[in-house]
Amino acid sequence: MAVIEKALWQAVSPLLDELLDADESRRDARLGQIRATDPTLANELGALLARQGTVETQQFLEGSALDATGAATLAGRNIGSYTLERPLGAGGMGSVWLARRSDGHFEGHAAVKFLNLALLARGAGRFRREGSVLARLAHPNIARLLDAGLLAGQPYLVLEYIDGEPIDRWCDTHALGVRARLRLFVEVLGAVTHAHNNLILHRDLKPSNILICLYDGQPIPKVIDFGLAKAMHQPLTEHTLYTAHGAMIGTPLYMSPEQAEINNLDVDTRTDIYALGVILYELLTGTTPLETQRFKAAAWHEMLRLIKDEEPPRPSTRLSSGAVLPSVAAQRRLEPVKLTKLVRGELDWIVMKCLEKDRGRRYETANGLARDLGRYLHDEPVEACPPSTGYRLRKFVRKHRAGLVTTGLQELDARLLKTHLATGERLLGTDRVSSIVIGLDDTARTQEVGDALALRLRSASSEPLVLTDWRARAPFYGQVRALYSGVFWFLGGIVFVLVCLATSNTLLMSVMERVREFGTLLAIGTGRGQVALMVVLEALWLGVVGALVGDARYPPLRRESITLVLAISVIEHIGRDNGIYLRGERGPCDADGDYTSIRALAALLVPGGRLLVTVPFGRSEDHGWFVQYDLARLKNLVAASNLGVAEVEFFRYRDAWEGPLPPHALGDCSYGRGAVAASGLACLALVRERGPLVSLRRRLAAWKTPFPI
Amino acid sequence: MGDVAGDMNALAAALTAAEGGDRAAAADLFTMLYAELHRLARRQLNANPAGLSISATTLLHEAYLDIRGRTAVFPDHGRFFAYAARAMRGLIIDHLRERKALKRGGEFHLTSLDTNASESVPQEQELVPLGEAIDELAAVAPALAELVDLKFFCGFSFIEIAQMRGVSERTVQRDWSKARLYLDRALRG
Fold first, then answer.
1. How many domains does chain B have?
2. How far does the CA of residue B49 sit from the closest CA of chain A (Å)?
3. What's residue B45's pLDDT?
4. For chain A: N or C, fewer Cβ within 10 A?
5. Which of B53, B89, B173 to mutate to test the interface with A (most CBs of A within 10 A)?
6. B128: which chain A residues are within 8 Å (Cβ-Cβ)?
7. CB–CB of A623/A665 below 8 Å?
8. Which of residues 148-167 of A touch B (CB under 8 A)?
9. Is B150 on the interface with A (CB under 8 A)?
10. Is residue A21 annotated as part of the catalytic site, yes or no?
11. Could you tell me if A90 lies within 8 Å of chain B, comparing CB atoms?
12. Active site residue: A38, A103, A168, A204, which one?
C-alpha cells in the first residue's frame, strides 16, 4: 500500500515541480489557489512540502548507500616502489591516490591514478603502449609520468605529484595583473608545444589540469594528465558508448566544436588550441565563453549544439556586460573600465582566433599563439586581427542560409497552431526549434487557445519564459501560461515562448537577449500578428547591423538553424494598412521604408532560401484586391532580393466572405518556385468548399491578371 | 545454470516481456542482472584477493560491456542502467546484510567513486526499509525510483544521470527532490 496512491501522485507530481521552484509567498498563494478547488490535493502537497526542510537539513539520502558498505581502503598498499597514503580525489576516470616513495632510495611523493576499468575498451596492452609514449614527455611545465602498470588487472599510472592550485584560482587569489597572467600562460604554451612536437595532444586542457606551484617563490605552471584521454582511448565524443553514462572526460566548457561532433574522432593540435583559448578567456574575464549556468540547464544534445553553434561574445564585451566586473577587475588589480579597455582590441582578437569554430582559422600551433601573445607583451602588432567586414558578412550569410517561412494565423486555435507548428517542424527539424515567439494581440483568442491546450504539459521539464509587454493586463497571465505549456507539448523540446502584445524597444531588446540565449527562433503570429513579424524582423535587422559593426548588444540570429517561421499574414497587413506596422517611429526603417526590414531579412538569405507565404483571403470582395496588391508588391520585393519562394499557402478566414472568390483575389502567385500548398484549418475549409488543391492550382494558373503597382 | 547463449536468450526474452509490462518477467530480468553483477564482483575479488575495491559504477560499466559483448539484448546503456540499477540496489542491500552476518570475510567491497562522503552515511538497518519504500515508489512513479537507484545506490552524479536520460541537470535535481520527499514520507510517516 503506497503512502500516496498513483492517481493522486500524478496530480501531485507536476504541482510539486512548480511549487519546489517557487518562493515561499508564491508557494503559499498557489497552495491556497489549489485548496479552493481541491483541498485533498492541497493537503497532500502541504504535507510533502513541509518535509523539505528536514530532508535538506538531515541530508536525507545525500550520501550514497555505497558509503555504508565500508569501502576497503587502499591506504598502506604498495604499488611498485610506492606506498599509497590517502585518496586525493575521484571522478569518472578513476581515483587518484597520494603515494610515498617507499624503497628507501628517494624521498618524495607521487600521485597514483587508478583508471576506471570500463573505460579501457581496448584493453591494458594499448594502455601500456600509450603509457610509454607519455613517458617521453620531459618538460619542466609538464607533470612527469613516472611509472605505469597493472595491479591485479587494474591499470594505474604513477605521476609526479603536484601540490598546486588551478591556474585560474591561483591568479585570482594572488590578484595577478593581466600581463603577469599572460606571461604565466605563455609558459603553459611552452609545455603544450613540447607535447605537440612529440605528437601528443592533451585533449582535456582546463584550469584544473594546469596547476601552479611555487619553486623558490616563483610560480611555475605544471600541466597534468597529458594525453590521458588518448591513453584511455576515450574520444571525448564517443558518448554513444561511454560518456553518456557518466564517463565524460572532457569538460564540455572546454570542448572544441570538432570534439562535439558525434563520432568525429578527428582531432588535432588545434583542438588543444581551442581549449587554451577558453582558458585564456577565463584568465582575462573570469568567465568561460559559454556560460556555466546555461550548460547546467541544457540537456546533452543541447550542450553539444551550443558548443558547435554558439558564437561567444568577445572577452571585452563579456567584461562590459558582466555584473561581476568590479570583482573580476579587482582580482586583476585594475579599474573595471581600464580592464575592459585593456582587453578590447588585440587581446580580444587573439582569444577569438583561438575560439574560431572553423579550426582552419585558429592558430596552427601553440607556439603560434605563444608568439602572438609575446608580440602583445612587447607591444608589437599581433598576427590575429578582426576578420574583414566582407568575410564576416559572407560568414553571416552562410550561417543564416535558411528557409524563411511566413504563415498567417488569423485565427489561432489549437489545431491551426498545431498545423503551423508542424510546418515549422517539417522545415526546421524538430530538434532545431528551441524558441518560439508568439505574437498575440487578441486576448479572446488567447483564452481560446489556452483553454484548448491547458493541462497538456504541466510536467514540462524546462519552463519557458514569458515576456510580455501587456501593460497591466495581469489577468491575462494564466491564459498565457496555459498557452505556452500547450506549445511545449507540441514541440517536446526546449521551448522559449515569447508573448508579445505590442512592440516596444524594451521588448525588442528582451527578445534579442532571449535570442542570444536560446538561438533558434520560431515565430508564430496570431491575430494581427504583425507584432511577431516586427519583433523578428527588427531582431534580424539589428543582428545584421550588430554583426557588421561588432556590437554585441545586437547579436545576430544564429546559424542555419534559424529557419524562421514568421507566422504572420504579411501581405494583408502590409497591404491593407499600407505598411504602417513596419514603418515609422521604430527601428531602422528608411523614409518610405515599410519593406526595409524585409529587405534586411532577405539579405540574410542566400538564393534558394525558402519563403512560405500565407495569403489570407476571402474576407470581402474588396479584400481580394488587397491580396493581389500585396502579392504584387511581394513579388517586386522578392525580385529585388534573393528570396526564393517555395510555397504559397492560402487559407480563408473563418468569417470569410461567402460569395464566390473573385478571380483577381489570387492574382499572380506564380513567381519563384511557387509550388502551391495549403495548410491550416481554414485552408481545409477552403479545400472542402472549392475542391482539391490540384484544381486550386490549376485555377491559379488560369487567373493571371497582373496588377500594376 | 544454462549455457551462456541460453542465458542471453533468456535475458532477451525477459527484457521483452518486462517492457511489455509482465511483472514476473521483470522479476526474472532483475534476478539475471543481479547474478551478472554478482558474478563480476566475485571475479574482481578472485583476481584480487587482497580486496582492492571496485566501484559500483565500474561494476555496472563492466556488466554492460560484458553483456553487450555477448549479445545486443540492450540496445543502449540507458536502458541497461534502468534495469541494472535496480539489481545493484539489491546487491548492495544483500551485501550489507551478509556482511552483518559474517562480520568481515572474503566478501567483496563496493565503493562509490565519489570520495566526498557525506556526513549522513545511511545506517545499514535503514537500507532494508528504504529498499521497500523504493519498490513502492516504483509502482507509483517508476522514473523516480530508478533515479534513486542510480544516484543513491550506484553513485552516479546528477550530470551523469541527466546525460543518460537526455534531460537537463535541473530536471534531474527536481525529480530528486520529489523522490526524497516521497521516500521521507514513506519511511518516517
1. 1
2. 9
3. 58
4. N
5. B53
6. none
7. yes
8. 151-154
9. no
10. no
11. yes
12. A204
User: Per residue in A690-700, pLDDT tens?
Assistant: 333 322 333 33
H or E element that contains A195: helix A178-197
pLDDT digits (tens, 9 = 90+) for B38-96: 777 776 655 554 444 556 666 777 777 777 767 777 766 677 777 888 888 887 777 66
For residue A458, name the pLDDT band (cuts at 50, 70, 90).
very low
Shortest CA distance from A21: residue in chain B = B174
Whether the Cβ atoms of residue A574 and residue A610 lie closer than 8 Å to each other: no
Angle made by CA atoms B186, B187, B189, in degrees to the nearest 5 = 70
Helix, coil or strand: residue A155: strand
Residue B53, domain extent = 4-188
Average pLDDT, chain A: 59
What integer pLDDT is reported at residue A642 of this predicted model?
Answer: 42
A492 pLDDT more than 90: no
Find chain B residues with C-beta within 8 A of A299's C-beta.
162, 166-168
Has residue A547 got a pLDDT over 60?
no
**List of chain B residues whose C-beta atoms are within 8 Å of the C-beta of residue A296:** 168-170
In angstroms, the separation between the Cα of residue A80 and the nearest Cα of chain B is 16
pLDDT at position A200: 82
Contacts of B65 in chain A (CB under 8 A): 118, 121
> Which contacts (CB < 8 Å, 24+ apart) does range A372-377 have?
A373/A182, A373/A185, A373/A186, A373/A189, A374/A186, A376/A182, A376/A346, A376/A347, A376/A350, A377/A179, A377/A182, A377/A183, A377/A186
The minimum CA-CA distance between B43 and chain A, rounded to whole Å, is 11
Q: What is the mean pLDDT of residues A163-173?
A: 91
Return left, alpha or beta for B96; rule: phi > 0 is left, psi -120 to 50 is alpha, else beta.
Answer: alpha
Going from the C-alpha of A64 to that of each of A146, A181, A251, B122, B134, the distances in angstroms are 34, 40, 24, 8, 15
Is A500 within 8 Å of A437 (Cβ atoms)? yes
